[in-house]
Amino acid sequence: MLVRVLASLLVAAGLLWALVAWGGVEPGDIMDTLAGLTPGQWLLALAVHAGIYLLRAWRFSTLMPGEVRPSFGRVLAASSAHNLAAYVLPLKSGEATFILYSSGVGGVPARASMASLLVSRLLDLVVLCACMFLVTWLAPFLAAGLSSSLFAVGAVFLVVGLLAAWVFVRRAGFVSMMVSFLRLLRIESTPVGTKAVLFIGRFSEALDEAGAHGGMMRATGISVALWGGVITFYSVLLPAFGWPEDQMIVVPAVLAAGFATLANLLPVNGFAGFGTQEGGWVLGMSLWGVDPELALAVGVSAHLVQLGNVVLFGVLGHLAMALLPKMSGDES
Prior knowledge:
The protein has helices at residues 2-21, 27-35, 39-62, 72-88, 97-106, 110-142, 149-169, 171-184, 191-209, 215-237, 250-264, 276-286, 292-323. By secondary structure, it is an all-alpha fold. The protein is globular.
């Protein structure tokens, strides 16, 4: 047990070292930003962020078949540790840790955890695009002098959201199309191709099983609540970092959070999202007519608070995984 605890803490420490050494983010930066918050504001933001983590873990659990679903505590530990890795590791490589952590701490087969992760990301994209479409089309009616380009931006989100929704609904059929295409290329005549076709076929079955028996509707509702939490999190932080008291908060928070999230989806971005997330934040707020300097100052500060929370929850997740008894899973 002691060896596992030390090993897990070493992994978490390695991720934090990478954040400091490669990302240029010093612990003092986070502490200086937190010092600008009142204790009440920080605790409220932390509570909202904790709620987001609980909802994310609940959605992962909901999308796993009942026969392989571990306890909620195990899913929460794996999800929290995974979020730290996904945030810090480059080129989205940290996403794969959810599969490893779910297997190690919960005994979840790789294809089931992969299906849960993929469907979760599709739900995120659908809900995010729906929020951005509604906000960009309503914003010109809520404030005078906003750019008419918001309608064009909203139309793009509508198209992307509908496409993501189609893939979400037809997810297993979409994967089956990939298998048919590989067979058309006669790739299954090679040993590697045979294994690839077999795995994709099993993954298609896992996608069908994800959220079965009403779980998909529940996961969709959880996703809506989750994104409501994300918007609330930023809305709590905005007043703490110089946001004018007479300005609306919710709409610019949606625009900033939406574009910052989309910027972080880029396969090549700044370490821990630095640079790309702020760029998305400034772009989103500029559509609301916010001065770029104010948008950048608020964006960097909110990002540092977010990062501090991710580190805290990630370390706790690694510690919990080390303390929980191991469970073996089918990795095929």
